[in-house]
């Protein structure tokens, strides 16, 4: 490596660390904020003055989970004369018949359940919620996605803080119906627990802005109206409305001791649909909200946290860039005869990764995860974040320059463990992850041959992430190509079949038994991620 190239590599690596380490340090800051105490009204709302509540269930082709969602909503512990259930159904498949059946069954039992249909899917989820809210009877709106199964007491628990008239939204935590299904759901459970316990919890307890998570939250209707209601110009309508409401002066409450169980995406394709939408929509919302946020008279700490929150997905392109420079930076250091800075190099890598590890370790501790095996689980979680850096980075860049992309919901399977909705698989993402896995393998071989021992643990972590998500994605893309003649696309409705659940003995990553075993795509031949 020439001296000029070595200097350039070192400079680029330093630049990435200069942005990535603050993102990592921010996790520690949230951990500290989450230790603060904040009291809210938790006494039950007086029975004699209970308000009217509308429960909204937005759904689109949710055959696998629609029935359980309706049943759970209709089983809430609340006076039936004050409870309205809206099934905001945009489906165009057999979900329509299932919903009609369940709605009629609950109507026969005396509940006010409405099957709300629209002419088209204008505005997607935001459009459905806006149409439902316009016709809702409730003073409060409780929203659940179709894969959420609320317990009977959730409404009363979320309603208690609303006795404070300054509270505009109360958010519950999520728990996980299928946490132990495979390594992917296990790692996501740590990601989600970290998000709710320390990101949402830290922002709430620290007096910062935080967002409604799109589901498992109760809105005051007057707050929603004052903020302008649902808008469909971003892919994260929940984040957008949350910031507009808080900028209008409304206060949000987060209850981490109230949890609603939900399904975690169990395949790489379903997970990436979700993560791409969140990332692209988050950046779109940041662009939309930023001018108003900067003009506001909010305290500087609140503004800074909001900036990090809205643009936090930029950590993914930084992670992807670090992957490219992971080994070349060590070669450049040796070429410049800076081997004596090895300790500094390792310290920087540790500073960029260890806070995330501590963050997820603490989340596991709070959720009561067994300490035995938790270190491996945290490593899997870090590897998952690395593997997602490719598709999420591309979504971030789309969010910078694109609007009007369709809302692509996360495929769900419910108790049947079968896919009935096809998302769009992105072949380029699969190829890029495969290419990164090959690159990390080459780095590993070169590091061993060149005795770059300090780089090897980090290379293995990145390699595990890209193989763990790359192999299933490549397999799915190839199946899509073979099955339809169009790369990465499969027919929208697949045949109903039970996937095989068995020990995962094949397709292991180079760290088989240590970090990540790439999961075969469940029913991948009829799913289009």
Explain what you see.
By secondary structure, the chain is of the alpha/beta class. The chain has a domain at 1-40 and 165-170 and 180-212 and 230-248 and 267-529. The protein is built from 17 helices and 7 strands. It has helices at 3-33, 63-74, 95-108, 124-135, 154-159, 183-205, 221-227, 237-247, 268-295, 300-310, 315-325, 328-335, 342-366, 374-387, 389-401, 427-449, 456-484; strands at 53-59, 83-89, 112-116, 140-143, 167-176, 217-220, 251-262. It has a 7-stranded mixed beta sheet with strand order 3-2-1-4-6-5-7, with helices on both faces. The two termini are 41 Å apart. Mean pLDDT is 85; it is low at 415-423, 481-514 and 519-529.
């Amino acid at each position: 490596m020439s001296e000029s190239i070595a200097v350039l590599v070192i400079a680029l690596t330093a630049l990435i660390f200069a942005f990535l380490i603050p993102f990592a340090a921010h996790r520690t800051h949230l951990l500290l904020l989450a230790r603060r105490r904040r009291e809210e009204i938790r006494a039950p709302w007086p029975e004699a003055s209970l308000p009217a509540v509308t429960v909204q269930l937005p759904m689109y082709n949710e055959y696998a989970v629609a029935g359980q969602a309706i049943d759970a909503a209709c089983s809430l512990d609340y006076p039936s004369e004050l409870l309205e259930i809206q099934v905001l159904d945009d489906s165009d498949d057999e979900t329509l018949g299932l919903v009609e059946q369940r709605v009629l069954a609950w109507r026969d039992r005396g509940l006010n359940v409405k099957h709300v249909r629209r002419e088209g899917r204008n505005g997607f989820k935001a459009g459905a919620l806006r149409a439902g809210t316009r016709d809702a009877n409730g003073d409060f709106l409780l929203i659940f996605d179709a894969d959420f199964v609320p317990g009977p007491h959730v409404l009363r628990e979320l309603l208690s803080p609303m006795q404070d008239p300054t509270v505009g939204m109360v958010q519950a935590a999520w728990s996980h119906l299928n946490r132990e299904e495979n390594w992917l759901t296990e790692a996501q459970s740590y990601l989600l627990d970290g998000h709710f316990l320390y990101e949402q919890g830290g922002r709430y307890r620290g007096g910062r802005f935080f967002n409604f998570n799109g589901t498992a939250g109760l809105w005051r209707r007057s707050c929603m109206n004052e903020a302008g209601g649902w808008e469909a110009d971003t892919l994260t309508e929940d984040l957008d409305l949350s910031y507009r409401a808080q900028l209008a002066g409304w206060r949000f409450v987060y209850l981490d001791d109230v949890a609603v169980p939900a399904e975690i995406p169990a395949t790489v394709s379903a997970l990436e649909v979700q993560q791409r939408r969140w990332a692209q929509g988050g950046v779109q919302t940041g662009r939309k909200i930023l001018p108003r946020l900067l003009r506001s008279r909010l305290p500087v700490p609140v503004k800074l946290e909001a900036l990090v929150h809205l643009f936090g997905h930029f950590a993914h392109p930084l992670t992807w860039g670090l992957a490219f420079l992971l080994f070349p930076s060590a070669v450049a250091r040796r070429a410049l005869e800076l081997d004596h800075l090895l300790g500094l190099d390792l310290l920087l890598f540790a500073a960029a990764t260890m806070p995330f590890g501590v963050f997820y370790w603490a989340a596991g501790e709070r959720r009561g995860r067994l300490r035995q095996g938790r270190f491996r689980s945290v490593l899997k979680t870090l590897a998952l974040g690395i593997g997602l850096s490719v598709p999420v980075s591309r979504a971030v860049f789309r969010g910078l320059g694109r609007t009007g992309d369709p809302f692509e919901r996360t495929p769900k399977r419910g108790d049947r463990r079968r896919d009935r909705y096809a998302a769009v698989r992105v072949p380029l993402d699969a190829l890029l992850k495969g290419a990164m896995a090959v690159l990390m393998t080459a780095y590993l071989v070169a590091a061993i041959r060149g005795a770059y021992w300090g780089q090897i643990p980090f290379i293995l972590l990145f390699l595990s992430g890209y193989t763990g998500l790359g192999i299933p994605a490549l397999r799915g893309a190839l199946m899509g190509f073979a099955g339809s003649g169009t790369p990465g696309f499969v027919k929208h409705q697949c045949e109903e079949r039970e996937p095989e659940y068995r020990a995962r003995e094949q397709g292991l990553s180079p760290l088989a038994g240590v970090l990540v075993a790439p999961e075969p795509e469940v029913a991948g031949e009829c799913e289009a991620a």
